Amino acid sequence: MQKVSVIGAGTMGRGIAYACAAAGFSVIVQDIHEQSLDTCRSYVSRQFEKAGKTDAEASIVYTTELKQAAEDADLIIEAVLEVMELKISVFKELDRYAKPSAILATNTSTMSPTEIGAQTSRPKQCIALHFFNPVPKMKLIEVICGLETSQETIEACFGFGEALGKECVKINEFPGFAVSRMNCLIGNEAMTMVMEGVGSVQDIDKAMKLGLNHPMGPLELADLVGLDTRLRNMEYLYKTLGEKFRPCPILVKYVKAGWLGKKSGRGFYEYS
C-alpha cells in the first residue's frame, strides 16, 4: 500500500491527509470546493513546518476531480459529511473509478460500512476506518468490519494503521461502534446538565477532566468535533438505538442558531 486518496478536505480529511503524508505515503486529496482544498493545503503546510518536514508536502496532490483522486489509489478514505445518502453516492462513484484491488474505507463515526459497501461491486474490500480528532495527535483507529469485509482487507488496514504509528482495534459493526456510542452518551448528558443548571459549562468540563482524568471535557470536545456533526451522529443513533440517544434540546437549539462550535466561533464556548 503506497498511494492513499482522501475524499473530503474538512477537519478530518485534512488531518488524515497530513498523517498519511507524514508517514511516507503518496497522498491525493479531493474536495468539490477549492476553498476547502486551500484550507487543507494551509493546514498541512503549518503541520509540516511544526514538524520540520517541509519537503514532505510534495507528496500531496490536491484536486476537485473524484476520478483523478480514485483511479490510482491503493486505499481510498472517504471523509465527507455524516449523511448516509452522500456517503453511498460517493462510494458508488469510487467503485466505478478505483482499480479492482483498491480498498474503500469510510471515516464514519457511527454509520454502517455494510450498508455503504453493499452499494458497490466490492463489499469484501469495504470497511470503516474511524480516525479521531485531531488526527495527528490521537493514537486510535477503530477498524469496523462490515458483514462481508474480508480478513485480507482487515489485515491490510491494520498494517496501514501501524505505518501511521496508530493503534488499531477491531470492532464488529453496530451503530455507533464503541467510542462514538459511549462518547455521544457522555456528551449528551453533559449538555443536559448544562440545560438543567447542574453546573456551568466550564465546571462540568473541569469535573470530567479532573474527576475522571479525561484529557478534554465533553462540551469542549463537542465544540471541537462540531455541534452540527454531533447532532447528526445523535440523530442517527437515536433512530437506530432508541430513546437514550435522543439529542439534548440545547444541542438542537445551538445548531439552529449557527453555533457550531470552534469552526463557527461559538458553541458551548466562544472562540476568537
Describe the fold and architecture:
The protein has eleven helices and eight strands. The protein is of the alpha/beta class and 272 residues long. Helix 6 links the parallel strand 7 and strand 8. Helix 1 packs across helix 2, helix 7 packs across helix 9 and helix 7 packs across helix 10. The longest helix has 18 residues.
User: Structural class given helices, strands, pairing?
Assistant: alpha/beta
The share of residues in helices is: 40-55%
Taking the sheet with the most strands, its summary is: 8 strands, mixed
Low-confidence stretches: none
Order of helices and strands: EHEHEHEHEHEEHEHHHHH
Strand order of the largest sheet: 3-2-1-4-5-6-7-8
Overall number of domains = 2
Question: For the record, what is the CATH homologous superfamily label of the largest domain?
Answer: NAD(P)-binding Rossmann-like Domain
Count of DSSP-assigned helices: 11
Note the beta-strand portion: 5-15%
Can you tell me the CATH architecture of the largest domain?
Answer: 3-Layer(aba) Sandwich
Using only C-alpha atoms, the radius of gyration works out to 18 Å
- Spatial gap, N to C terminus: 41 Å
According to DSSP, the number of beta strands is 8
CATH topology of the largest domain: Rossmann fold
Mean pLDDT, all residues: 95
CATH class of the largest domain: Alpha Beta
Q: Looking at the structure, what is the overall shape?
A: globular
Domain 3-hydroxyacyl-CoA dehydrogenase C-terminal: 176-271
Pathway: Lipid metabolism; butanoate metabolism
GO molecular function, one term: oxidoreductase activity, acting on the CH-OH group of donors, NAD or NADP as acceptor
Binding site for NAD(+): 8-13, 31, 82, 87, 109, 133, 263
